[in-house]
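Fold Annotation — chain and its backbone

Fields — amino acid sequence, structure tokens

___
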Amino acid sequence: METHKTEDRHQSEYLYRPDILQKLDFNKSPAVFNPRISTVNPGADWMVVRPLQRGDFDKGFLQLLSQLTSTGSITRKQFDERFTQMKISGGHYVTVIEDKRSSKIIAAATLTVEQKFIHNCSLRGRLEDVVVNDTYRGKQLGKLIVVTVSLLAQELGCYKMSLDCKDKLIKFYESLGYKLEPGNSNAMNMRFEEDPS
């Protein structure tokens, strides 16, 4: 019996403290929600906004990410190891929206916090891996998850939040307060191919 309780606690382990999400002030965001929603009131009692949990491997988190990009064939062991590494190293705030009726993750976004020497040893946030399950689109969940992690970055003391996006998403992010910076609106990447061996 005690082993079962320990396993349940292990699976419900959060990547970061969930109470910080309750402190977020949605009045600080320029985003317009109609009807008004927030992390505390996501619009339906069957939804919850929370940090990623170890048990989300079984709640479709990786399948949701695969709607965004290739995830590969990640095993539970790999997921657990990455979860542990992210939790120990800090600076990783993967936030999800769960449909409690089906116990499935329906939206997610990642805030990565970089420690800087510039700006008086400040913090910079990066918004990554924003995805909403295609069957749940049109319910303001994209706005909700992006505003949540943006306000989280502010709550954590980041001086700036950055993101890279496709041209077709610029208007969406602008409606949430993001701006193209004149003379600095380019995203450049260097991709490294995986070694097939």
